[in-house]
Amino acid sequence: MTALIHDRNAQMRPVLVTGGCGFIGCNIADAFAARGRNVLLLDSMVRNGAQENAHWLKRRHGERIEIRTADVRDAEALRSAVVGAAAVIHLAAQVAVTTSLQNPLEDFEINARGTLNVLEAVRQSNPDAPLLFASTNKVYGRLFDERQVAPRAQRYVPSIAGCEHGVSERAPLDLYSPYGCSKGAAEQYVRDYSRVFGLRTAVLRMSCIYGPRQFGTEDQGWIAHFILQAIRGNTITIYGDGLQVRDALHIDDAVAAWLSVFDNIETVSGGIFNLGGGPDNAISLLELLAAIAQLRGAPPRVAYQSWRPGDQPWYVSDVRALTAATGWRPRIGLSPGLRTLVDWLESRFGADAPLPSVAGARP
Predict the structure, then answer these.
(1) Are the C-beta atoms of residues 108 and 186 closer than 8 Å to each other?
(2) N or C end of the chain, less CB within 10 A?
(3) Distance of CA 311 to CAs 97, 142, 187, 225, Å?
(4) Could you tell me the residue ranges of all domains in the chain?
């Protein structure tokens, strides 16, 4: 009976999601709430779409969702949120390479110091709570230079052997750009707090996640940004030649991966895993432009500029380690996945789209 009461009490404690009103955060929060869990969102609310995502969650789940406006640089606000949490999903971050180049100090304070604040809050106030951290493929750096990739049709392909499954977690880190440095430092702290202090942590190095509720910008969320620019009739700027390749993962598959790590935290604790669509869901910028033209019936307008610092000519995630650890694998292909994003963006931003209703919901 005591164990049963303990389990019920644990179920009542909220899952804390930092950055919970962002694209990935709100979808993860939605999934936990759909499981019957209470969810506490901690968000600075400065990102485009955060308020709208907050209202969407409140409309769907009501009192099961609690939202606090706070920044991960506020250590006291973090401690207050962490102390009663059943688990911590740490997504809050400065997410753009370009912004990190403009303000490296702020990038460090949010990504590296902010993550250390989260870790210390868990260590000091709630050390039994699992902690899952969102990292990035940018920790691998450029990986290949122009001599190690070759153009083939509308994409680059590696000209060296051993890349058929993508880039594995065994690839050496080569932190490139202040953003890559801050996220790389943060994820290593997360790993070390598992080894040194015994916290139950896991790191997910994410590639390109896309899908509904993504308010893409030129600096972050490039797939949604391209589609949104096409819907608005604006010019899409390609930095480089457009042959650069990324693997893309639909948000529903991404959420399933986060839940699989949460459900298996006892066996994956201390692990670092790639999270992306893998080779079957790789796409170049030029191929995405062609897909947008097919999905919308008209080609988008395009302009070209020089490559940006740290841009990877080819990156595809090897996700076999995560599959082996949890049984998860990508299930939504690019064609149906892109259709869901086009439909959502057209319903939200198209010429005939109604303004979003936020009545009766307060974050």
Answers:
(1) no
(2) N
(3) 9, 6, 20, 17
(4) 2-349
Closest by CA position to 292, among listed 349, 354, 345, 353:
345
Q: Tell me which residues are annotated as active site.
A: 179
pLDDT in tens, the chain (363 residues): 444 334 556 678 999 999 999 999 999 999 999 999 999 999 999 988 999 999 999 999 999 999 999 999 999 999 999 999 999 999 999 988 889 999 999 999 999 999 999 999 999 999 999 999 999 999 999 888 778 899 999 999 998 888 899 999 999 999 989 999 999 999 999 999 999 999 999 999 999 999 999 998 888 899 999 999 999 999 999 999 999 999 999 999 999 999 999 999 999 999 999 999 999 999 999 999 999 999 999 999 999 999 887 788 999 999 999 999 999 999 999 999 999 999 999 999 886 554 443 332 222
Pairing of β 245-250 and β 282-284: antiparallel
User: d(Cα 255, Cα 250) in Å, to the nearest integer?
Assistant: 9
Residue 99 token pair: 């912004």
- What would the two tokens of residue 323 be? 């599959």
| pTM given for the model | 0.92
CATH for 2-349 is: 3.40.50.720
Q: Which residues have a Cβ under 8 Å from the Cβ of 112 and sit 6 or more positions away? A: 182, 185, 186, 189
Instruction: Report the distance separating Cα 155 and Cα 208, nearest Å.
Output: 17
Helix pair angle (114-125, 75-82), 10° resolution:
40
The residues with which 3 forms a beta bridge, in sequence order, are none
Question: Beta-carbon neighbour count of residue 228 at 10 Å?
Answer: 22
